[in-house]
Write a structure and sequence with these properties.
Elements (H helix, E strand, L loop, with lengths): L4 E2 L4 E6 L5 E7 L9 H11 L17 E4 L1 E2 L2 E2 L4 E6 L21 H7 L17 H16 L4 E9 L2 E2 L6 H7 L10 H16 L6 E8 L13 H10 L4 E6 L10 H4 L3 E4 L2 E4 L7 E2 L2 E2 L4 E7 L9 E5 L4 E5 L10 H23 L11
Antiparallel strand pairs: 1-2, 2-3, 3-7, 4-7, 5-6, 8-9, 8-10, 10-16, 11-16, 12-13, 14-15, 17-18
Helix pairs in contact: 1-3, 1-8, 3-8, 6-8
Length: 368
């Protein structure tokens, strides 16, 4: 089985390359009867597009979604939903000169070995962050499905380079502020510092990484399929499908290694006739099953590997050591554009599990 599809009840198949004709997604298993238009998907894709500031790539793609199948008279039919965005602002010739010189930090060399040199090298081809447009298209539909259960997905930047947001950030603050600044940070005073961190690295021909936090509110308890389809393992797998992701943690995450059990355990209580936890170090998941508390996941991104500093590499044709210096249009930090991608990936996995569990039926009773 090839690795281009993910999900069990809700299955996403992704296709396309960075400088090819289009990026596409086929979403199979979406219940029939969900109200859906291209505008519903476009609003999510617009969040992923680069801002007009110097913190993002200068590549300007319209990312206008086209729904090719699976929707009739603005309702899903139950058939596979095929969606594409066309690649219009492409510069494929910039990559021909370096085809046989793998860029440090990219998948050029590993793809060359795996596919015998037949891989598409333009802009990273299949391994480009551009493929995440497909994740966002699927995520837009997943968010609509989760809305039937009252589930809300939030995401925000909590670290860029050495600039960190400390403590918990209020949900209203995230809703209000994330898309008011180019770095997608909910704490506006930190957002200014994060922007300076990115611009500082870019001015030196370098790049920075960071961390995105995503939160799912009101997700019901009891969902997840242990052992190997546990909720956290499937969320982590989906997050690692985002290019540049190097780490995923839930709740207290790696910090829990320095805590005692008495500090890390989430004690139980009853509030308004409902079982709750007095803390959420587990991040909303225990034993691979949702607890009913907010699901909290943080995703670490490495610095963008495309930098303008001269770097050592090899010439694969001559089998000689050489150097490479990249030019072109690259994000000095991928984190701001990754915020809606992380949000979409979390939504997709949760929607898949909600359908598997029967919380979302295969045919919706929405009246036309």
């Amino acid at each position: 089985m090839n690795g281009n599809s993910i999900g069990k009840a809700l299955v996403l198949t992704c296709f396309g390359e960075s400088h090819g004709v289009c990026i596409g997604a086929v979403l199979d298993g979406c219940p029939a009867g969900l109200p859906l238009t291209e505008a519903d998907i476009q609003v999510e894709l617009d969040k992923r597009r680069p801002s007009s500031t110097a913190v993002s790539t200068q590549r300007r793609e319209e990312d206008r979604v086209e729904i090719l199948s699976g929707v009739y008279e603005d309702y899903t039919t139950g058939a596979p939903i095929c969606m594409i965005v066309r690649n219009l602002d492409v510069e494929p010739d910039a990559y021909k000169k370096i085809r046989n010189k793998p860029r440090p930090g990219h998948a050029d060399y590993t793809a060359h070995v795996k596919y015998g040199g037949h891989n598409d090298p333009r802009g990273g081809g299949r391994f480009s962050g551009r493929v995440t447009a497909a994740y966002v298209m699927a995520g837009a539909i997943a968010k609509k499905l989760l809305g039937l259960l009252g589930v809300e997905i939030l995401a925000h930047t909590v670290q860029i380079g050495k600039v960190k947001v400390s403590g918990q950030v209020g949900h209203d603050q995230i809703r209000r502020n994330v898309y008011r600044n180019p770095v997608r940070c909910a704490v506006l005073e930190k957002a200014d510092l994060m922007e300076k961190e990115i611009l500082g690295a870019a001015s030196e021909g370098d790049s920075v990484g960071g961390i995105v936090e995503a939160i799912a509110l009101n997700f019901p308890a009891g969902l997840g399929e242990p052992i190997f389809d546990s909720l956290d393992s499937e969320i982590a797998k989906m997050m690692f499908n985002i290019p540049a992701v190097k780490g995923v943690e839930f709740g207290a995450g790696f910090r829990s290694a320095s805590l005692r059990g008495s500090e890390n355990n989430d004690e139980y209580a009853v509030k308004k006739g409902r079982i709750v936890m007095l803390s959420n170090n587990a991040g909303g998941i225990l034993g691979g099953i949702s607890t009913g508390m907010p699901i909290v996941v943080r995703v670490a991104f490495k610095p963008t590997p495309s930098i303008s500093e001269r770097q050592k590499t090899v010439d694969l044709t001559r089998m000689e050591e050489t150097e490479i210096q990249l030019t072109g249009r690259h994000d000095p930090c991928v984190v701001p554009r990754a915020v809606p991608v992380v949000e979409s990936c979390l939504a997709f996995v949760l929607a898949d599990h909600a359908i598997r569990s029967g919380k979302i039926p295969r045919v919706l009773t929405t009246e036309k």
